[in-house]
Structures are given as structure tokens and as C-alpha cells.
Task: inverse folding
């Protein structure tokens, strides 16, 4: 016969209570403790049921604070720094500079050989100027003769140094320590004793020989207008007495020799760097051996 059956599927006590007779069996409602639903059914606007989980919403990676920081406009300069703008005319300079180009704009500039030589300083050599050569040997080179001359004559030229770049003569004089007051000078002529000039020598502190000999230094400038010969002698004066050293009456002479400037060796020029014949790579690396009058391509 027809029967109405309601069944609740759940985890709990058995559904049937009582005897085993099916006719007497009644379905008893199972009282279950309230449980948290895993799914919360919600009815959408269109009438269908929609299951939504209780999973917490995803947190965005950008916080509102970061959005505020990024939304703030950034200034190119710091708040504490202030820049001041000034123009050239405020400083007395021109606002514009005009340069005239004589070559076409689509062609690279052409460098002449003279310009390359001036930039690389290949063909420019300073003028050596006059060169002076002494006609005598340095007196101190022969120490025995120098010491004998000093003992017998109380004065002797020790050495002379020619400074060609400065056009001057420097040297030292040794005198015998015969008195405390000493006057030492050099007498020089540049025109074969038509005129003469005296240059005083200054005292130079000595070492252990100070008790026997004193040293004096002198410096003589050479004028640009000279006769090509310099002659000099030294004098030691003390207590009204003079002692002279004139190189045995021949004087100490220096001759001027004008050395002509040496011309640079000729440079071989090549148009093709792959066929250039040079002695060393450094010579080729200077770019002096290539013809650069035309364009670089």
C-alpha cells in the first residue's frame, strides 16, 4: 500500500527505534546538535541558489598608505634646497655666440698636415739658444794642483757651471782662511776687456774644513748681446791685500757655440694603413704616417 516516508540523512543515532516489525517502525526525528554549515546558501537576484564560502577576502598587496604616497606629486628638488637661475647678461657675458661654418654640414672637417703637426707638436722644437763651452778643465778635477794653488796663492777657482737655459754662470771659489774679514768677487768681461764688471761672491758654510778654507759661491748673468767669448778671473781681498787667480795669466775663457736646431727626420706618408711600412707599431700609432687631408671614409 502507499506509504509516505521522510528520511533525514545525518551522522547520529540509528533512525529506527522499537521492534523489528516493519509495520510498527516509525521514523523518529533525530535531534542533532547545531552545527556550523560549511556552505551558506544565498539566493541570487535571478532566483538561483549560490553557494559562498566563508573564506576571508583576499587582502590587496597595496595598502591605502602606499596609494596615498604614490598619489602625492613628487618634486624634482628637495624642499630644503632652492635653486637660483641666472643669465649670462647678468654676469656681463653675451647671451649668444655665433660661429660661421665654411665647410658643408654633411662633410666632416678636413685637417691639414700643419694643423696635425701643431696639435701633436711633432715639428715644433724649442730654440736651444747659445751653448757655452769652457776652454779649461775644472780646477778641482786635479786635486793636488788645486790644493797647491790654494796653499800658495790663498785663492783658487773651484768649479764653473754653465746654465744655457738661464744664460748664466755659477761656480764656487775656495780661499784660505787667513783672516776673518774677507771680500771675494769675480771680474768678468764680454768684449775682450774693453769693459769689465765685478760680481760679489757670497759665503757658503763649510764642513770640517772651515778652520782652514772658506767657500764662496757666485752667479754671473750672460747678456743677450755678447761677443761670443766670456773671460773671468777671481780675486780675494783682505786687510788691503789682494790675491788673484787668473788661470796662470790666461784667464778662464768660455766660448759660445750656436748649435743649429736639428731638423726632424722626414716622415713617410701612406694613404692605406694596411700597406704602411713602419719600423715600430708606436710610430704607426701616432697617426703621423697617414695622409689626413681627405675625409676619414
Result:
Amino acid at each position: 500500500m502507499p506509504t509516505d516516508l521522510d528520511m533525514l540523512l545525518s551522522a547520529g543515532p540509528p533512525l529506527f527505534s522499537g521492534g523489528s516489525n516493519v509495520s510498527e517502525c516509525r521514523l523518529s526525528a533525530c535531534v542533532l546538535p547545531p552545527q556550523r554549515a560549511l556552505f551558506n546558501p544565498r539566493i541570487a537576484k535571478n532566483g538561483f541558489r549560490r553557494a559562498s564560502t566563508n573564506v576571508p577576502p583576499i587582502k590587496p598587496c597595496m595598502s591605502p598608505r602606499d596609494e596615498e604616497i604614490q598619489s602625492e606629486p613628487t618634486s624634482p628638488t628637495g624642499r630644503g634646497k632652492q635653486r637660483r637661475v641666472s643669465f649670462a647678461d647678468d654676469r656681463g657675458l653675451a647671451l649668444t655666440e655665433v660661429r660661421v661654418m665654411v665647410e658643408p654640414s654633411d662633410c666632416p672637417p678636413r685637417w691639414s698636415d700643419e694643423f696635425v703637426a701643431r696639435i701633436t707638436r711633432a715639428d715644433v722644437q724649442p730654440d736651444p739658444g747659445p751653448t757655452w763651452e769652457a776652454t779649461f778643465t775644472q780646477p778641482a778635477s786635479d786635486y793636488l794642483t788645486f790644493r797647491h794653488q790654494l796653499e800658495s796663492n790663498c785663492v783658487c777657482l773651484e768649479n764653473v757651471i754653465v746654465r744655457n737655459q738661464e744664460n748664466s754662470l755659477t761656480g764656487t771659489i775656495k780661499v784660505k782662511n787667513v783672516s776673518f774679514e774677507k771680500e771675494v768677487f769675480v771680474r768678468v768681461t764680454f768684449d775682450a776687456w774693453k769693459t769689465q764688471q765685478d760680481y760679489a761672491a757670497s759665503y757658503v758654510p763649510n764642513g770640517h774644513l772651515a778652520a782652514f778654507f772658506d767657500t764662496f759661491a757666485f752667479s754671473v748673468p750672460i747678456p743677450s748681446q755678447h761677443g761670443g767669448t766670456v773671460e773671468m778671473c777671481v780675486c780675494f781681498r783682505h786687510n788691503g791685500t789682494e790675491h788673484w787667480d787668473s788661470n796662470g795669466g790666461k784667464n778662464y775663457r768660455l766660448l759660445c757655440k750656436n748649435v743649429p736646431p736639428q731638423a726632424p727626420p722626414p716622415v713617410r706618408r701612406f694613404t692605406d694603413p694596411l700597406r704602411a711600412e713602419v719600423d715600430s707599431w708606436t710610430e704607426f700609432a701616432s697617426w703621423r704616417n697617414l695622409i689626413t687631408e681627405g675625409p676619414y671614409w
Remarks:
- Residues 130-258 form a domain with the Immunoglobulin-like fold (CATH 2.60.40.2440).
- Residues 10 and 35 are 11 Å apart (CA to CA).
